[in-house]
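From the pipeline queue, job 12 of 40. The input is one protein chain; the requested action is below.

Action: predict structure.
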Amino acid sequence: MSPLNRQCAGITRDGRHCTFSVSGPQQFCHLHDPDRSEERTRAARRAGKAKRHTIEVRDLKAEIRTLISDVRTGELDRNDAGVMIQGFRTLKDLIALERQVRETDELATEIEELKRAYGAA
C-alpha cells in the first residue's frame, strides 16, 4: 500500500481491524469516521423505516394473492373480493402518503440543520 493509501484505523463489530483504505490525511473510512456518526445514524434510521414499509407492502401482496386464489376456487364471492381490493388500494395509497410525509419531514429537518450549520437561521 502506498504512503498515500493506508488502512482504516477503525475496529469492526467483531473486533478485527477495518480493511478499507483511506487516503491523504484521513485516519478512518466513512464507516468509522467519528465526524460522520450522525450521518450514519440518520441513514440507519431511514433504512429501518423503509424496511417496515417493505414488510407492509409484502404482506399486502400476500393477502391479495390469497384473495385471488380464493376467488378462483370459489371460496370467496367476486363482489366481496372487489370490495376488499378497494380496501387494499386505500391501504396502498396511505402507505405512499405516509412515505411522502416522512420524506418531507426529513428534508425539512435536514434543511434546518444546514441552516444552523451555515448560520442562516
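Job complete. The first helix runs from residue 37 to 73.
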